[in-house]
Known about the structure:
- This protein has helices at residues 68-77, 135-147, 169-177, 187-196, 220-241, and strands at 6-10, 21-26, 39-44, 47-53, 82-91, 101-102, 106-109, 152-153, 157-160, 182-184, 200-209.
- The chain is globular.
- The chain has 5 helices and 11 strands.
- Strands 1, 2, 3, 4, 5, 6, 7, 8, 9, 10 and 11 form an 11-stranded mixed β-sheet that branches.
- By secondary structure, it is an alpha/beta fold.
- The chain has a single domain (6-255), classed as Nucleoside phosphorylase domain (Rossmann fold).
- The longest helix is centred in the last third of the chain and has 22 residues, at 220-241.
Amino acid sequence: xxxxxxxxxxxxxxxxxxxxxxxxxxxxxxxxxxxxxxxxxxxxxxxxxxxxxxxxxxxxxxxxxxxxxxxxxxxxxxxxxxxxxxxxxxxxxxxxxxxxxxxxxxxxxxxxxxxxxxxxxxxxxxxxxxxxxxxxxxxxxxxxxxxxxxxxxxxxxxxxxxxxxxxxxxxxxxxxxxxxxxxxxxxxxxxxxxxxxxxxxxxxxxxxxxxxxxxxxxxxxxxxxxxxxxxxxxxxxxxxxxxxxxxxxxxxxxxxxxxxxx
Length: 262
């Protein structure tokens, strides 16, 4: 029997001791090393959940050093079939305001120094990422956001950079020119690795700032303050969302490896 049905990858702002019932912390070993943190197992609205601190429990792991493969492999080992990735993002569009929630439907990978696949050979696999986010999870998230009457966007292209620095003004304007909507540092390779494991993946992205194309320089302090403001809204979304997914998966994610191996 699976230890967990849903994986949540987030940070210290999202998880609190009161979030889960029947809590236990476990170490999970993987062929790719240790996950970012101990895995917190518990139930949330009757659903078995596994929580990982993406940047470590004390936020000591920068985005380009996160062991994404170990995190996804650990969740797979526990039986997780769906992952919700929490994200703080900068907005590249006027109408995506700080505090808004974005449910991306596409991404652009501008990372350069990350292990983005489980298939380094000799087995060669090419999964399709034409539609990278789970359609069933996206539909459930949009339903919850409407029920809660939270300001949100049902589509968006997330451009992922390595970090840990923020963009230059020239870069920020370039991302706008290629039609990206939000910018962050953690989506890739989480989303691609999940697809290789046939795990459904959804990002809930909270806008914290306008990057630097619109205003002055972005600061880490500004991002943290904005995230703290939005934390309660995100918790409300999670509280309803984990119980909204269909019991049986009928999405393409569940058969992503079919016909993908050479």
